[in-house]
Specification:
Length: 380
């Protein structure tokens, strides 16, 4: 099936519209220096973003500050997380500089449990090359990939264009690894303001001579990501409920359908009853929509719900919001083959909000359930 959600064409890729995401990094500052603009973009799209940092960064030699570096860097992570709008930023206590020597199963278990606790629909990590060449970055990403494999969650890896990596290596003698354009899956337009604020919160590390500032200059307003573990077509387990507003009521997990007469059935959803029927010209009494129409209506209403939530989050008026839908059928097997949805918003959206609204609405729960097929069993 093709599902097309139309708002405004985007000149860049859009991030997946997860309602909850977990970033897994090795050191305090990785979430800001490297992933900051991407995490900010996810937050702006309506996603609840959490960070799991596997070390406390105590081995840093950059700071030049006396005192308890572990406590200092924990405080900096807290302030940076607030600047990025993170839902949570958790610190583990594994040794900085030796993450690769920690038992892999221990790291995988931490990532898995954290992802389940926050209800993550996907992970964000450093590219499997580590990007900077630091072995801790590689170890963190490997642990996240193993956990994602167990949970059947997709994983986005942050990377650099090869040209930027080579320029930085030439200027700073660094060991960045990048990728050619055809190896990059998403090129996302970002706003750097909150990333810069969050990076400055790591005052012990964000020194004026840091390669960070040159990298941001070379990247401009674009970030580059690779699917280290792409979304699959197979069934994915639902993690523990997210703190987001979209968690379904427990009772909604059970739906009952009772036969009435003719082609009419009653669908019982909690305390609600919906009648489905067939049109009179095919033998029904037209007492309600057909199951197929109800299916398409479910998709359209879910898109509308996510659009309204996005507008509310960004304090934009949702009065008059509507979604118009058309669909096409195909045979062998009989199915809905294409759905086209047009989102009509009451006011002209600010340009910086269009991609976010399109991404949020285009990846609603019903849409995700179509593109990532649920496991369906039929029996007695």
């Amino acid at each position: 099936m093709v599902v097309h959600v139309e708002l405004v064409p985007s000149s860049a890729s859009v991030l997946p519209a997860w309602t909850s995401a977990l970033a897994v990094v090795a050191h305090p500052d990785d979430e800001s220096f490297a992933l900051g603009a991407v995490l900010d973009a996810l937050v702006q799209s309506g996603c609840h973003v959490s960070v799991l940092c596997l070390t406390r960064g105590e081995a840093s030699t950059v700071h030049g500050i006396s005192g308890d570096l572990r406590a200092l860097r924990a405080m900096e992570l807290r302030d940076a997380g607030a600047a990025l709008g993170l839902s949570a930023a958790e610190l583990s206590d594994h040794p900085d500089g030796a993450l690769g020597h920690v038992n892999r199963a221990t790291l995988v278990s931490e990532v898995r449990e954290t992802a389940l606790r926050v209800g993550s629909q996907g992970l964000v990590v450093f590219d499997d090359s580590g990007v900077t060449g630091h072995p801790d970055h590689i170890a963190a990403s490997e642990a996240a990939l193993d956990a994602a494999t167990e949970l059947r969650l997709p994983v986005l890896g942050w990377t650099l264009p090869r040209s930027v990596a080579e320029q930085l290596n030439e200027e700073f003698g660094s060991t960045f690894t990048g990728h050619e354009p055809d190896e990059v899956d998403l090129t996302v337009r970002v706003d750097r303001d909150k990333q810069r604020t969050a990076s400055l919160a790591h005052a012990s590390q964000a020194v004026p001579t840091s390669v960070l500032w040159r990298r941001l200059e070379l990247l401009g307003d674009l970030e580059h990501l690779r699917w280290l573990k792409p979304p699959t077509d197979g069934p994915q387990p639902v993690p523990a409920a997210s703190t987001g507003a979209t968690a379904a009521p427990t009772d909604a997990a059970s739906v009952r359908v009772d036969y009435c007469d003719g082609d009419r059935f009653e669908i019982r959803i909690r305390d609600h009853v919906v009648t489905v029927d067939q049109p009179a010209d095919v033998g029904g009494d037209d007492a309600g929509p057909t199951p197929t129409e109800l299916f398409v209506a479910g998709l359209a209403s879910c898109v509308a719900f996510y659009a309204r939530r996005y507008l509310r989050r960004h304090k934009l008026d949702a009065s008059g919001l509507r979604v118009e839908t058309s669909y096409s059928m195909a045979s062998k097997p009989a199915r809905v083959s294409r759905v086209d949805l047009q989102i009509h918003v009451p006011l002209e959206l600010p340009p910086e909000r269009r991609d976010g609204l399109l991404a949020a609405a285009g990846h609603c729960t019903v849409h995700n359930s179509i593109t990532t097929a649920p496991e369906i069993t039929i029996g007695f």
